[in-house]
Amino acid sequence: MAIDNAARFDADLLRQRVDERLAEAGASAESRQAAVKAMLHASLVGVDSHGVRLVAHYCRMLGGGRLNKNPQLTVEKRGAGSATVHGDDGLGHYAAYKAVEVGMELAREAGVGAVGVKHSSHLGAAGAYALAGAEEGFVTFATTNTDSVVALFDGAQKFHGTNPLAFAAPVPGQRPWLLDMATSSIPLNRVMLHRSLDKALPEGVAATSAGEPTTDPHEAEMLLPLGGVDYGYKGAALAGVATLFSALLNGTTLDADFLPMYGGDDISTPRNMGHFVLVIDPDKFAGRALFGAAMAQYLASLRGSAVREGGTVMAPGDREWAEMDARRARGIPVDPDTVRFLGL
User: Fold this and answer.
1) Domain ranges of the chain
2) 71-296: which CATH topology?
3) Which of 23, 25, 169, 260 has the greatest CB tally within 10 Å of its CB?
4) pLDDT digit string, tens, across residues 323-338
5) Model pTM score
6) For residue 141, what are the β-bridge partners?
7) How far apart are the two ends of the chain, measured CA to CA in Å?
8) pLDDT by residue (tens digit) across 191-220?
């Protein structure tokens, strides 16, 4: 979601200020480098809810002790194509990027690398990690489960988290094919962003504590699953996929058992979040050259397909790359609260 009528800033300036604030909060160079990279990715592609606006939250958690300022990541290989990364309760971006690196190492040998992450924390936009693998020539899937904020289909209580699913694949001579989607109607951070902007939410994406749909971000207590009132059973089931891979396989925290990301009094207890990354080496399947040619042909066919009057056909990632180009040229919009926090 783009921020309308907001002040805009150069990406390099934002990168510098975000890094400075994390450094002031005590984050190690390695962990803050990963966090800055992931936040800037989100801000550049237009996912402002998971972009630089999160730096204030992360700094608060570092100050409160929930986040380890100097995490020491460890890796345990569990099989020919599987491993676990222990995040040492640091910034989740650091552990997630490490999982992609480990997954690529495994995939080069075994064809696939499945990597679980435990004792981690909020990782921001899952697409940043799928993209990291694709940029190195691997098909990559990344997911995480989060604290309960989304109702089930026909439900009237929080059950799943926003639980994103992100996929990316390399395309010769082009930027990667990229899909990054929450399994809720919108991410929770979008509600927080709307509160900051005092802007109404779209219809059919959020509900009050009684389960009644609302467009008021200040009344929104839970989200609706992807598909909304009529087809939300699809989003609710997909949210369970993220929980299966991230929490159940790793033995980490279930959605309903998380300390809340926002609003709780306890900011000193780690949350033991789990993530999951699957990395696939095309060379071990059809072959990198054949796969690349097929991807290019597929996307050319997709983008050249007939459209209805006034419509536009785009492949996953097309909107993001266009937004990135625009923001590199015009600057990244930043909400007022974050402008103040960064001293812009």
Assistant:
1) 71-296
2) Ribosomal Protein S8; Chain: A, domain 1 (3.30.1370)
3) 169
4) 999 999 999 999 999 9
5) 0.94
6) 167, 278
7) 21
8) 888 888 899 999 889 999 888 889 999 999
